[in-house]
Write a structure and sequence with these properties.
CATH superfamily: Alpha/Beta hydrolase fold, catalytic domain
CATH class: Alpha Beta
Strand content: 5-15%
Radius of gyration: 18 Å
Largest sheet: 7 strands, mixed
Shape: globular
Distance between the termini: 46 Å
């Protein structure tokens, strides 16, 4: 691992990236962060929910944050084990909400198919790894002769959305630094990691058909990370999507600077009112 990525991992030791638990009342929620993210993604929304009395559990998934050096060896089973442990902290409550962002949306959906959650809320959920068919067919051969894909090799690092996303993810990723830019362009995602992401997406789609609780999905119309078309197709797999909200803006739905963040808060308030009125909105 390069000096850059060791610096990135070290920067994740800051308090805002660590897992947190807020002991409140009903409802209780597990907040599942996205790929290469940390619980920091949830802190603006968590403050809002805390003021409304929610109990909140935001785990740090294996292979992210300070655990970034181990990411290539982490599996879907590792992520799900961590989520089940987090869910156990709210299992005694009457109203149990699973909330996932991006990759966390896929993992929250898988968990919702296993437990009796009251509701599932998904922000820009990851449900498909856009690998060409020939990549999958040649994967065994590629693993022998090729170390992986370079996701940033052709990315426009001058694009404001890309710069905002990377800067918000970790301050060590200063795109004005030519060394950082070179490291990003050279970075390879190992085939094993891509295989686990593909496996996660497939498990998410299967699990969606088994989720019995009501589902809310929020997606940005200008999302270039997870295309909104993925969520439009995903909604058809669930039995009960009672809210499907398309809002202006990109993938960074949980940032207070996002043009749709006010609508995110309004959705959360409406869900709380619904659960209070129905006594939990049990499936």
């Amino acid at each position: 691992m390069s000096d850059l990525w060791l610096s990135v991992a070290a920067a994740f030791d800051a308090p805002e990236h660590r897992p947190f638990v807020i002991d409140g009342g009903e409802p209780g929620a597990v907040l599942v962060h996205g790929f290469l993210g940390t619980p920091k993604e949830w802190r603006p929304l968590a403050g809002y929910l805390e003021r409304r009395g929610w109990t909140l559990v935001a785990p740090l998934l294996p292979g992210f944050g300070v655990g970034l050096p181990a990411l290539p060896a982490v599996t879907l089973d590792d992520w799900m084990r961590a989520l089940r442990e987090a869910y156990a902290r709210i299992a005694h409550l009457q109203q149990r909400v699973l909330v996932g962002y991006s990759l966390g949306g896929a993992l929250a959906t898988i968990l919702a198919s296993e437990v009796q959650a009251t509701r599932l809320v998904l922000f820009a959920p990851f449900s498909r790894l856009p690998l060409p068919i020939w990549y999958r067919a040649l994967l065994p051969l590629a693993q022998r002769f090729h170390s992986g894909l370079r996701p940033f090799a052709r990315v426009d690092l001058e694009h404001p959305e890309i710069q905002q996303a990377l800067a918000g993810w970790n301050p060590a990723l200063d795109l004005s630094d030519p060394v950082v830019r070179a490291e990003l362009r050279a970075l390879r995602f190992p085939w094993r990691l891509l295989r686990e992401l593909d496996r996660t997406a497939a498990a998410m789609r299967r699990s969606a058909r088994l989720v019995s609780c009501p589902v809310a999905i929020v997606h940005g119309l200008d999302d270039r990370t997870v295309p909104i078309g993925d969520s439009r197709r995903l909604r058809r797999l669930f039995h009960r999507v009672d809210r499907f909200v398309e809002i202006p803006g990109d993938h960074q739905l949980l940032s207070p600077d996002h043009p749709g963040f006010a609508k995110v808060l309004a959705l959360v308030d409406s869900l709380l009112v619904t659960m209070q009125r129905t006594g939990g909105d049990r499936p």
